[in-house]
Model the fold of this input.
Amino acid sequence: MTDYPMSAKVAIVTGGGGSLGRATVVNLAARGLTVVAVDRNEQALRELPDSVVREAADTTDPNTARGLVDRIAAEVGPPDILVNTIGAFRLGDALNTTPEELQLMVDVNLGTALWLSLFML
Done:
């Protein structure tokens, strides 16, 4: 494990590699929190400040989410804050949405927040 500056508060930011996630990560880190940025895009994670803990993971999978929270708690500290900036959408009307598109949106927009929130308890 790399040595990161640690604060009393640990924040997990999902979608930390995207533009909204990056802004959130930088803001929380500037306020002195220990920030763990989570994203599937490893290249985007590498572009974050060195003080940020980076985790490449697909948090739509409940098993991945559980292991991630457990690992963060053990290596960084118990997470206090969860910010979900991850999201997905498909343009189009509801009548033409396929079951696969709907499942993707539920998994990304609801599943991630649900799994990580439950496992942080």
